[in-house]
Design brief:
The complex is a heterodimer. Chain A has 10 helices and 21 strands. In chain A, the strands form 2 sheets. In chain A, strands 1, 4, 5, 7, 8, 10, 12, 14, 16, 18 and 20 form an 11-stranded mixed β-sheet that branches. A 10-stranded mixed β-sheet of chain A has the order 3-2-6-9-11-13-15-17-19-21, covered by helices on one side. In chain A, helix 8 crosses helix 9. The termini of chain A are far apart. Chain B is built from 9 helices and 12 strands. In chain B, strand 1 and strand 2 form a beta hairpin. In chain B, helix 2 crosses helix 3 and helix 6 runs parallel beside helix 7. Chain B is globular and about 60 Å long. The chains are: A alpha/beta, B alpha/beta. Chains A and B meet through helix 8 and helix 9 of A and helix 2, strand 6, strand 7 and helix 3 of B.
Chain lengths: 454, 252
């Protein structure tokens, strides 16, 4: 008994780190931010690290967070050559780079930006846009006052408690930024496991549009990334937000993407999970105006013992909004996947059109997926559909390929590739899409296939 | 070249082909006509090796090789090409990638070196023009979002690229307007050669105005009930399938 008590009494490193970094954090940003941190820290401590008894974490074990000693992040050195070896390290874009949670100016780009556009760190952003920044930070990443069963916000609180460095993107009214933005978070562990809490804030004013690629690249070692991205879209704004998770095979990656859409806005979220050992992504979209469009595309490819858990939540709070969601998983070896897709249609949200699809392909008898669509509808004139398939390969497609001379094993590999690549095709930044398609190729066991995807 | 002897085949438990025999020589075009449900498409699919069709008797040889012992991909390598009635959409794989993989497999089988992407593109350029396939159709996913006409053109384009010895066209004319029909027929005619043969499965005579057959066979209830020259197709067009049924009934 005594032992159990001792265990409970000993705080995890995620909690004990706070005392060590509190004073340092205080130096980032205004006092109001420190108040936010303290509040969030208390919130996190109310329930601590989730266990499988928590409904929203039923199929993922986070014991590693309880037991692992993830110290505060420390500095590291990565040069341009090493960066170029990462999957998206050479992408030509307006680039903001972080290394082990710290801004890495030498690995960032120095583009001339259109008037009023800001792409940089939260710290620099607060110098020019403090009011905008503070008004929006934490604004989207909350489920307060939302209808229906709520998701779990613990890791958002944990992120906010440690909120230090981060990326800030601001696109003023009417600006269509054609050049893509790439926010990359690199992690490399060379003396002991650590934790980072990346934070990204994207604000698009009315009529603005942008393409943002948010990537997490693990270079080596054991660490824990706990990321939060908030995107706030003004009226008629258009955002393509592509998130690419390529952590090391020993890393834990937990993320929350929170999107807030005003009337007439369009969001395309592409959520790509290839890396990590234990991975959990939450994507929450709040539709706060009429005639919005939301596209949630997700693809996970798990091998070895990877666990990849995707939770999505769309709050249709206003009438006439459309959402289209497609999440796919390819799982081999002993990998396991989770999909939980919630759609809430509020009483006022008449003429909602929501379509959700979840498809998984299991490549081995020891791979598995738990899938749970969850629709809660409080309006009567709506169209909501959902479908989940756990699939084998399509026989008709297999036969078609074989009649063209492609041997059955190759045809199977090609169809598995195609199944996942279909999601990658939604990415409109060609360089990113091509790099991910090549990576998909090598991640799947496709030696039998000719290279040169395009 | 192609010898089909007393072929029986079924799908699930339904007997569909009930003793089909057909002999096709190099350079010939044979049309297989027949009413719906007569077994035309089954015959085309059995030639290509569709797994859900069970062959219960007979043989099919192509230049002496027993096709029934071969997988679909081996048949393709031996020179069989099936143009599908309903070409399959494969999102996520581009047309060029797919076709190059196909061509290189077939070439490997024939003892030819594989083509690089550049060589491949050179190989297909003229064929794409012939079939009026613009570049976007080549870089898009296989058949995805293609119109009916584009899909059928893509089938013939693939055939032109793979250069089979036996082309089997399964209702290639269905769903085509007259312009698309002409493009498709032009493509097929351009591929006609003394070494290559075609089996053209069709319900209507229309396609045969453009792809003129050397022989026409009428398939009914799983058997070839009559064979003749191209004038047989015209007779069918004028009189319908009914007159054959009546003749058969009278004979019985």
């Amino acid at each position: 008994m005594l032992e159990t008590l001792d265990l409970n009494a000993r705080p995890s490193s995620l909690v004990s780190n706070f005392e060590a970094v509190r004073d340092l954090l205080r130096t980032y940003g205004p006092d109001s931010l420190q108040e936010m941190r303290e509040r969030a820290f208390k919130e996190f401590n109310k329930f601590g690290i989730p266990t499988s008894k928590d409904e929203e974490f039923k199929y993922i074990s986070l014991k590693v967070l309880e037991e692992g000693k993830f110290g505060p992040a420390y500095g590291a050195t990565v040069d341009r050559f090493q960066l170029g070896q990462t999957v998206l390290g050479k992408v030509d874009a307006i680039t903001v780079t972080f290394l082990n949670g710290e801004a890495a100016i030498e690995l960032s780009s120095h583009d001339a930006l259109p008037d009023g556009v800001f792409v940089g760190t939260l710290r620099d952003g607060s110098l020019v846009h403090e009011e905008t920044l503070m008004r929006n930070l934490g604004h989207a990443a909350t489920l307060e006052g939302r209808l229906g069963s709520t998701n779990d916000e613990r890791f958002v609180h944990l992120n906010t408690a440690y909120l230090g460095e981060g990326a800030f993107i601001y696109i003023p009214s009417g600006v269509d930024l054609e050049r893509p933005i790439h926010v990359q978070w690199l992690s490399t562990e060379d003396h002991g496991p650590f934790v980072t809490h990346p934070r990204n804030l994207i604000v698009l004013e009315a009529g603005a549009s942008a393409k943002v690629v948010e990537s997490y690249a693990g270079m080596q070692g054991v660490y824990f990334t706990n990321a939060v991205t908030e995107a706030i879209l003004g009226k008629d704004a258009i955002l393509e937000l592509t998130r690419v998770q390529n952590e090391t095979s020993d890393a834990v990656h937990i993320s929350t993407t929170a999107v807030h859409q005003a009337a007439g806005s369009t969001v395309t979220s592409n959520n790509v999970s290839f890396g990590g050992k234990v991975v959990r992504n939450d994507v929450n979209v709040w539709l706060d105006g009429e005639h919005t469009e939301t596209w949630l595309n997700g693809v996970s490819v798990g091998t070895g013992n990877q666990v990849i858990d995707n939770h999505t939540r769309i709050d249709h709070a206003k009438p006439n909004c459309h959402s289209f969601e497609t999440y796919k998983a390819v799982l081999g070896d002993h990998a396991s996947g989770v999909f939980n897709g919630k759609i809430f249609v509020y009483e006022d949200a008449q003429k909602t059109d929501a379509k959700q699809t979840n498809q998984a392909m299991l490549l081995s008898p020891t791979a598995g997926i738990n899938t749970k669509p969850q629709l809660e509808i409080f309006a009567d004139d709506v169209r909501c559909t959902h479908g989940a398939t756990i699939g084998q390969l399509r026989e008709d497609a297999l036969f078609y390929l074989r009649t063209r001379g492609i041997p059955d094993k190759q045809a199977e590999a090609l169809l598995v590739y195609a199944f996942a690549a279909e999601v990658l095709e939604k990415i409109s930044v060609p360089e990113v899409r091509d790099a991910l398609e090549s990576q998909l190729f090598s991640k799947l066991d496709t030696q039998s296939l000719p290279q040169e995807v395009r | 070249m192609l010898e089909i002897k007393n072929l029986f085949a079924r799908v699930d438990d339904k007997e569909i082909l009930k003793g089909v025999s057909l002999s096709v020589n190099q350079g010939e075009v044979h049309a297989i006509m027949g009413p719906n449900g007569s077994g035309k498409s089954t015959l085309a699919n059995v030639l290509a090796g569709r797994p859900d069709y069970e062959v219960t008797g007979g043989s099919i040889t192509l230049n002496g090789a027993e096709l029934l012992d071969l997988s679909p991909e081996e048949r393709a390598a031996e020179g069989v090409f099936l143009a599908f009635q309903y070409p399959v959409e494969i999102p996520g794989v581009t047309n060029t990638y797919f076709l190059r993989a196909a061509l290189n497999n077939v070439r490997k089988h024939r003892g030819l070196p594989e083509l690089s992407m550049t060589e491949f593109l050179k190989h297909v350029r003229g064929k794409a023009e012939l079939m009026d396939m613009d570049n976007s159709l080549l870089t898009r996913s296989v058949n995805e979002g293609f119109s009916g006409g584009e899909k059928k053109r893509n089938e013939i384009f693939q055939m032109a690229v793979l250069e089979p010895t036996l082309g089997v066209l399964d209702e290639t004319d269905s769903g085509l307007d007259i312009d698309a029909l002409k493009t498709v027929a032009n493509g097929v005619n351009a591929l006609r050669s003394p070494e290559r043969a075609f089996v053209v499965v069709t319900h209507y005579q229309r396609l045969l105005n453009y792809i003129v057959p050397d022989f026409v066979h009428i398939l009914m209830d799983g058997r070839i009930v009559r064979s003749g020259g191209k004038e047989l197709a015209l007779e069918l067009e004028a009189r319908g399938y009914g007159f054959i049924e009546e003749e058969l009934a009278a004979r019985a």
